[in-house]
Specification:
Number of helices: 0
Strand order of the largest sheet: 2-1-3-4
Low-confidence stretches: none
Distance between the termini: 44 Å
Strand content: 35-45%
Shape: globular
Order of helices and strands: EEEE
Helix content: under 10%
Structural class: mainly beta
Number of strands: 4
Length: 94
C-alpha cells in the first residue's frame, strides 16, 4: 500500500494492490522486486509525504512500514479545495 499524506499527516490518497485485486505473494526468505505505475498523479500543487506499508492479505499483520520515507512536491498553476482532482470529460448540451 503506497499512501500520500499532507504535511499535517492527514491521508489524502493511496494506491493499494488489494483494492485493485492484484495480489502479491511473498514467502519468508524470498526477495522480490515490486513496481507499480500511476499513470497520472491528480494531486493538487502542494508538498506531500509518501509512505509504504507491507501487510498480510487480510490486513491483520504489518510486516514493514516505511512512514514518510520521501517528500513529494507537486507543482502546478491551479489548486482546489480537495487534495485530489479527478480527470473527467465534460460536455454541455442545450
Amino acid at each position: 500500500n503506497l499512501y500520500f499524506t499532507n504535511v499535517g499527516g492527514e491521508p489524502v490518497a493511496e494506491c493499494g494492490n488489494y483494492v485493485h485485486e492484484a495480489p502479491i505473494s511473498i514467502r519468508k526468505g524470498e526477495t522480490k522486486h515490486i513496481s507499480m505505475h500511476i499513470p497520472e498523479l491528480t494531486l493538487n500543487p502542494a508538498i506531500y509525504k509518501v509512505g509504504l506499508l507491507l501487510m498480510s492479505g487480510d490486513m491483520v499483520f504489518h510486516y514493514d512500514w516505511l512512514k514518510d520515507f520521501i517528500q513529494l512536491k507537486v507543482q502546478g498553476r491551479r489548486t482546489a479545495t480537495a487534495s485530489q482532482q479527478f480527470k473527467a470529460t465534460w460536455s454541455v448540451k442545450g
